[in-house]
Amino acid sequence: MSKDYYEILGVTKNSSQEDIKRAYRKLAHQHHPDKKGGDEKKFKEINEAYQILGDDKKRSQYDQFGRTFSGQGGFSAQGGPASGWDFNGFDLGDIFEDIFSARGGSAFGGEDFLGGFGGFGGGRRQSRARRGSDIAINLETSFEESVFGVKRSVVIDRTVLCEHCLGKGAEPDSAIKKCATCQGTGTVRETRRSLFGSFNSLSECSICRGKGEVSEKPCKICRGVGAGKKRTTVEIDIPAGIRDSEAIKYTGLGEAMPGGSAGDLYIKIRVHPHPVFRREGNDLLMDLSLPLSKMLTGGEENIDTLDGRVLVKIPELSQSGDFLRLRGKGAASPRRGGRGDLLIRLYPKLPKKLSSQAKKLLSDLEKEGL
Ligand SMILES: [Zn+2]
Ligand SMILES: [Zn+2]
Fold it and tell me: Is the same domain home to 120 and 167?
């Protein structure tokens, strides 16, 4: 059964890093596969949980976004009108960085001819390549869809590299020359005067946009930008058993960045609550109220589960709050496969009114001590 990382380590959202470390050490020691009675699966689970919760940054990402899955869906270039789902593109920057490793690299590699962002401290160039923004979209699903999985498509207007110049911003036959404004450094020095004297500061060259080089013939299609917006349809394969607030990550399907790598696309799932079923781990819970007589003498009852109608046996002398368990009728575990159970909690339905006949029968029951 798949659990919450806090549950796996037996800690709470309020536990300190010290508590988490202590809990991890104890459990890792206990379940180490080299030990007698060790459990490799459990040990891996504990380690996965500690990798996230033991790191303040990853822990706060996890608190905010839950677990993410790497997406497997395809992606096609043309799309119809976006409709039917919440379409909120917003920039998450790097906050999702390596929550879970995802497949592949960026969809559009782009030759690295920029050499990185123009450095601002002492003119030193930073080694980090430019990266396009991530795109995050909220996608709503019904409770049933989250249990069984569903395929959806979303339409996004994303930045893609210009197909004519492949993101270089120059006509394919254009020569590249050193930027005259910044002498190829990508940065320009500005002198500012203030009450305390004059200061030199470095800023990115606006002519070559920090590249240090310019093309003699800018691309006719993108006017030298190297990229533009394009409507894209992404097929989303929502795995069976996904939970509310979990996200699916599509590496490289965020905004493209000429000369750098594309950001990622995050599909954050919002599961609508169900009027009957509640989810607890991979189990589903429901309440069932029965006539008092059926609770006492037992019998059979038709239950509408998410898999259809099932006839269940009500045991004699069922107590209020007793559970019936229907194995395998719960939600799927998207990581481990298999399904949880459906737990049916029994309650007596007490009457609001009594007929004189019922009163008479009850007075007989009273004599029986009931
Ligand atoms: Zn172009
Ligand atoms: Zn320049």
Answer: yes
